[in-house]
Amino acid sequence: MEELLDAQHPEGGRPTPEPLDDARGEGAEDPKSHRSVPRSAAFRRFIAQGWGPRPAEDTAPSAAAPFAARRRAALSALFPGEVLVVPAGPLVRRSNDTDYRFRPHSAFAHLTGLGTDREADAVLVLHPRTPADGGDDAEGVDAAGGGHEAVLYLRPQGSRDSEEFYADARYGELWVGPRPGLAAQEAVTGVPCRDAAALADELGAWVAAPGTRGLRVVADADPAVTALVAPLRTAAAEEVAAADDELVTALSELRLVKDEWEVGELRRAVAATARGFEEVVRALPRAVGHPRGERVVEAAFDGTARVEGNGVGYETISAAGDHACTLHWIRNDGPVRAGDLLLLDAGVEADSLYTADVTRTLPVDGRFSEPQRRVYRAVLDAADAAFAVARPGVRFREVHEAAMRVIAERLAQWGVLPVDAAASLEPGGQYHRRWMAHGTSHHLGLDVHDCAQARREMYLDAELRPGMVFTIEPGLYVKAEDELAPPELRGIGVRIEDDVLVTEDGVENLSAALPREPDAVEAWMASLRG
Ligand code: GLY
Ligand code: MN
């Protein structure tokens, strides 16, 4: 400890200890806390002094910044004259006094380009441009010279003479490290940054400014911010809620077509995910025979995700044998047995927060049995049928319909449907969905189920456009106790999921590096196991 203090004082300016305070006075510990936090004035003076400058902050402009500026401009054009409030969200309590690692709201990440754990309690505001803003660099400038200015409100770094510095386990620098200063964050994002303490007053001024037509907030992002803006809103509660919903819808739809930077991040996430799948194949011999082999698999993937990116984009589904028939099996506490299939549905979330979402169903001992191949082939044919129709101009729902035709026909061949395939495919039938209850596709991006608040006409009923990224993930799940299914198929669950980019004239399978054909899967597994 002494050496540490010396290192902090190259000039040898070691602070002089002061006399202790009376333990019954201001130096007493908080009787309600079990943390031993020294609070004496002498200690506070002592810990506040003798520090050199903090290490230089990262001020390199983020590669995402120009793209984020364009997204803000597109949002601005949709809501002329309105104040738009997009919080990053607060820290979320995991239990008692410990929090989850922070992840910003995806709309905030999209509009600022900030990823990883940046920046709890921050709030992005787009306010209508006023004459005082001057200049011609407003976002979303319309023909009348309108548009918005963006401001990012941040909790500034607590000073070293504050109690926060050493005693606040949520925000204190000694506990969680330094926060970027306002100037540094401004340099990184290209957005003017201000102290969060000014948020309420400045919002009030913008709402009251002549020409402002109202305020909208992403209401579920941060309850404290939603409460803070409530007094600034005069409309009836239903109108306020509807206005906020429109903002959320617009933010979701703004993400339907990815820009070039986002596609790059998705490629990065998919590549890291492929490496995670390789680690899982290498870990399979360890998983077999372990009482919680599914956890061995999960740990192999999640370890890669954490090392290569921000973590997993959703809880890893590591499902062996009959567990594969539970669509979101995330308990992952079962064994992995030779002869069974392992369904692994997992995605690495890059530091930018863009996530992959890939599923492969692997024979645990490296070879598919004949019944496993039969189910696998049906699912692969359904996926290929979906790929075959996917291109610009085709409606999103048609991708699903192409996969469902194959699924229904195959189930009809197996004699498990009460009607023929055509009748099952009718809206009033849908019997085949007993064996595939989920959809074939969802958009993918900052959220694994991206753009989920988009209107139906912009999502399911919309035509595919270049730059959209979505999954193709048909499956068949025959539960062990399924008395309608041929006995040899019971306990087999298969899903094959790829991440797909719509190009100018077709689609690109972003996850094609992971084999899908059963022979190729076997050869790939054999090559990794040596
Ligand atoms: N991969 C999980 C899901 O799409 O729901
Ligand atoms: Mn998925």
CATH architecture of the largest domain: Alpha-Beta Complex
| Spatial strand arrangement across the major sheet | 6-5-4-1-7
| Domain count | 2
The chain-level structural class is alpha+beta
Which fold name fills CATH's third level, the topology of the largest domain?
A: Creatine Amidinohydrolase
What is the 3D form?
Answer: globular
Largest sheet: 5 strands, mixed
Overall pLDDT: 93
Q: What is the straight-line distance between the termini?
A: 50 Å
Secondary structure layout:
Layout: H1 2-8, H2 41-48, H3 65-78, E1 82-87, E2 93-95, E3 98-99, H4 106-112, E4 123-128, E5 148-154, H5 163-167, H6 173-176, H7 182-189, E6 193-195, H8 199-208, E7 214-217, H9 223-229, H10 237-253, H11 260-287, H12 293-308, E8 311-312, E9 317-320, E10 341-346, E11 348-349, E12 358-363, H13 370-389, H14 396-413, H15 421-425, E13 469-472, E14 475-478, E15 492-495, E16 498-502, E17 507-509, H16 518-529
Parallel strand pairs: 1-7, 5-6
Antiparallel strand pairs: 1-4, 2-3, 4-5, 8-11, 9-10, 10-12, 13-16, 14-15, 16-17
Helix pairs in contact: 11-12, 13-14
Bound molecules: glycine and manganese (II) ion.
The site of manganese (II) ion has 5 residues, from loops.
